[in-house]
Amino acid sequence: MELLKKKIREEGIVLSEQVLKVDSFLNHQIDPVLMLEIGRTFAGLFADSDVTKVLTLESSGIAPAVMTALELKVNVIFARKRKSLTLRDGLFTEKVYSFTKQEESEVSVSGKFLSPGDRVLIVDDFLANGEAALAMARIAMQAQAEVAGIGIVIEKAFQPGGAKLREQGYRVESLARVASLGNGQVLFA
Ligand code: G4P
Ligand code: NA
Ligand code: NA
């Protein structure tokens, strides 16, 4: 997606060979015009996938997921990282191991909002090691729902998540694929 790559080139900050900071439009401040374009692009890519729900993980996945769901005219669910007071029973919970943070956490979705027969489009802001996307896929499985596909805003193609998900048979569509972050430069695949 050209508009997204332009934004990354102009505003992305290479923090290290592993980490790209994009907090001016995706991870802190949000550019809604860009998010709407992202949503339209995912909706177009998955137009024939009979998506019934969009599933993401709080917090940075929510903006692109909402725009995608708006275009597909379906609801969006965000998995929660902390258990809420009102969210107790009938939870689908999965562990996520973050290699970046070197810690394990739990993510949960209420059983009320996912059902057998649902076709789930997983959307997330970044794909690195794929652990978050795999946890969401396992949540869909717990609900006996199908994963219709995985939409990623920025895939770090030099990390193993994309290959892992595609090997498992998931259709992964990434709007920008970063091949490397060497020499302080963003190189697209
Ligand atoms: P994985 O799910 O692919 O295995 O990724 P990982 O554990 O490495 O990611 C942990 C957090 O770091 C996630 O955000 C992920 O989106 C984010 N992340 C990973 N690589 C990058 C990067 O290069 N740049 C930026 N800006 N973020 C990256 P999170 O902790 O879930 O936070 P939130 O922003 O969704 O609240
Ligand atoms: Na993030
Ligand atoms: Na994320």
UniProtKB/TrEMBL annotation:
Q: One GO CC term of this entry?
A: cytoplasm
Q: Which keywords does UniProt give here?
A: Cytoplasm, Glycosyltransferase, Purine salvage, Transferase
As its record notes, the protein acts as a catalyst of: XMP + diphosphate = xanthine + 5-phospho-alpha-D-ribose 1-diphosphate
**Main location (coarse class):** cytoplasm
Pathway listed: Purine metabolism; XMP biosynthesis via salvage pathway; XMP from xanthine: step 1/1
Q: Pfam families in the record, alphabetically?
A: Pribosyltran
Binding annotation for 5-phospho-alpha-D-ribose 1-diphosphate: A128, N129, G130, E131, A132
Q: Which domain of life is it from?
A: Bacteria
Ranges for domain Phosphoribosyltransferase come to 40-156
Q: Provide a GO biological process annotation.
A: xanthine metabolic process
The yes or no answer to whether the keyword Cytoplasm is present is: yes
Per the UniProt entry, the Enzyme Commission number(s) are 2.4.2.22
What InterPro entries is this protein classified in? PRTase-like, PRTase_dom, Pur/Pyrimidine_PRTase, Xanthine_PRibTrfase
Under Gene Ontology molecular function, one entry of this record is: xanthine phosphoribosyltransferase activity
Keyword set includes Transmembrane: no
Signal sequence extent: none
| Compartment list | Cytoplasm
Q: Which residues bind xanthine?
A: L20, N27, K156
State whether it acts alone or in a complex, and with which partners, per the record. Homodimer.
Per the entry, what this protein does is: Converts the preformed base xanthine, a product of nucleic acid breakdown, to xanthosine 5'-monophosphate (XMP), so it can be reused for RNA or DNA synthesis.
Q: Which HAMAP family match?
A: XPRTase
Q: Which family does it belong to?
A: Belongs to the purine/pyrimidine phosphoribosyltransferase family. Xpt subfamily.
Q: Which PANTHER family match?
A: HYPOXANTHINE/GUANINE PHOSPHORIBOSYLTRANSFERASE, XANTHINE PHOSPHORIBOSYLTRANSFERASE
Report what the protein is called.
Xanthine phosphoribosyltransferase
- Species for this entry: Cohnella faecalis
